[in-house]
Design goal:
By secondary structure, this protein is mainly alpha-helical. It is elongated. Helix content is 52%, strand content 11%. It has a two-stranded antiparallel ribbon. It has two domains: 39 residues, no CATH class; 46 residues. α2 packs antiparallel against α3.
């Protein structure tokens, strides 16, 4: 899977007689040559956060010294996901 920079795509507006509407059209060649972006799927981050929850529970039980770092990481990830959600209109 490639994650492309959709802002770099070139498109045309095409008029469709049958619907009487114009639509934006991007050609497959344009998508194929679009530049990729470095990105991590949100689902992967959410999955890791759930795993981190379990690790924190066990760290409390065993008195792990890394507990503060794990809680900080979870807080930081939560804030970053919320920010991403606001930017991308995700509930």
């Amino acid at each position: 899977m490639r994650i492309i920079d959709a802002d770099k795509l070139h498109y045309i507006r095409k008029w469709f007689e049958d619907s009487g509407k114009s639509e934006v059209v991007v050609f497959a060649k344009e998508i194929d040559k679009a530049p990729t972006v470095k990105a991590i799927p949100i689902e992967l981050i959410e999955k890791e956060m759930k795993r981190l929850d379990e690790d924190i529970k066990w760290a409390w039980y065993y008195g792990n010294t890394a507990l503060d770092k794990m809680e900080y990481l979870k807080t930081w990830l939560t804030i970053k996901l919320e920010d991403w959600g606001k930017e991308n209109e995700r509930p």
